[in-house]
Amino acid sequence: MSLLKNKIVFISGASSGIGMACARSFAHEGATLILAGRRKEKLEQLASELKEKFNSETKILTFDVQNNHEVKEAFNSLPEDWKNVDILINSAGLAQGMHKLQEGNTDDWDVMINTNIKGLLYLTREVLPYMVKRESGHIINLGSTAGHDVYPSGNVYCATKFAVNAISQSLRIDVLDKSIKVSSVDPGMVETEFSIVRFSGDVERAKNVYRGVDPLTAEDVADAILYCATRPKHVNINEIILTPVAQAQSNFVVRKTT
Q1: Measuring CA to CA, how many Å separate 15 from each of 18, 51, 173, 193?
Q2: Could you tell me if 21 and 47 are in contact, meaning their C-beta atoms sit under 8 angstroms apart?
Q3: Fewer CB near the last or first residue (10 Å), C or N of the chain?
Q4: Is residue 2 part of a domain?
Q5: How buried is residue 236: exposed, middle or buried, by Cβ count under 10 Å (0-12/13-18/19+)?
Q6: Tens place of pLDDT for every residue, the chain, 258 residues?
Q7: How many structural domains is the chain composed of?
Q8: Of these residues, 122, 157, 210, 227, which one is catalytic?
Q9: pLDDT tens digits, residue range 227-251?
Q10: Is the separation of the CB atoms in 143 and 184 below 8 Å?
């Protein structure tokens, strides 16, 4: 029997990267999926793929997590039984720009804070009351090694991931008496669209981030998230930190030279 048969799994940021990899991993285990993101066409393609490969039942929600009204409206559009989410994966997040604080673009700051912190809070606020009512559920937040140690010119992005770390720990306390699990999965260098977005589409600059390193893949991180979600009922994985072998912390990386 599939591990997650008939479980409703809500994945934000499902249109690319780690969120998309999670959708594939959880569909393989029989989950029913709510795929959320901004790019409707990408979500529709993914839903079609999952239907063909795994006969997955899915619903698509298109919204920007930065906008609380859009989050509320999208969640409220779900049929009532679909609101009883078993696992929420807060995967939506990004970095924009990489400047010293005194040179930073405040618009970039707003996007990172509104997406990585407020977006996670907005979505969790909608889903969590249903879990509390049932005294059952699991929230898995995608953090980062940047939420444990900082690196040059990572100021605001690192701050948002430190916030995710704090929110995850605080939330675990808030729902401790409700039998709700809370986990944080915190990867180091993962090669997805992350650096391309950070550098405003500069593909060559993004490639340099991973030069000489065999980075994590989105599938590696999705595997860790799936591990958290499939432990016995009495087991909660509070936190997983995973990095490539060549990376010790956010700012300690050994690069191969050729």
Answers
A1: 9, 16, 31, 11
A2: no
A3: C
A4: no
A5: middle
A6: 577 999 999 999 999 999 999 999 999 999 999 999 999 999 999 999 999 999 999 999 999 999 999 999 999 999 999 999 999 999 999 999 999 999 999 999 999 999 999 999 999 999 999 999 999 999 999 999 999 999 999 999 999 999 999 999 999 999 999 999 999 999 999 988 777 778 777 788 878 888 899 999 999 999 999 999 999 999 999 999 999 999 998 889 999 886
A7: 1
A8: 157
A9: 999 999 999 999 999 999 999 988 8
A10: yes
Alpha carbon 86 to its chain centroid, in Å, reads: 16
3-state helix, strand, coil in the chain (%, to 5): 45, 15, 35
Q: Please say whether the beta carbons of 132 and 175 come within 8 A.
A: yes
CATH number for 147: 3.40.50.720
Distance CA 84, CA 75 (A): 11
In a domain, residue 243? The reply is yes
3 found inside a domain:
no
Assign residue 228 a region (left: φ > 0; alpha: ψ between -120 and 50; beta: otherwise): alpha
* Distance in Å from the first CA to the final CA of the chain: 48
**Type of residue at 34:** I
Domain residues for 198?
8-253
Q: Could you read off the pLDDT of 93-124 as tens digits, one per residue? A: 999 999 999 999 999 999 999 999 999 999 99
Estimate the crossing angle of helix 17-28 against helix 218-229, to 10 degrees: 50
Helix H segments across 68-217? 68-76, 106-112, 120-134, 155-174, 194-198, 203-209
What six digits make up the tokens of 251?
């700012």
The phi, psi pair for 245, rounded to 5°, reads -55, -30
Active site residue 122: no
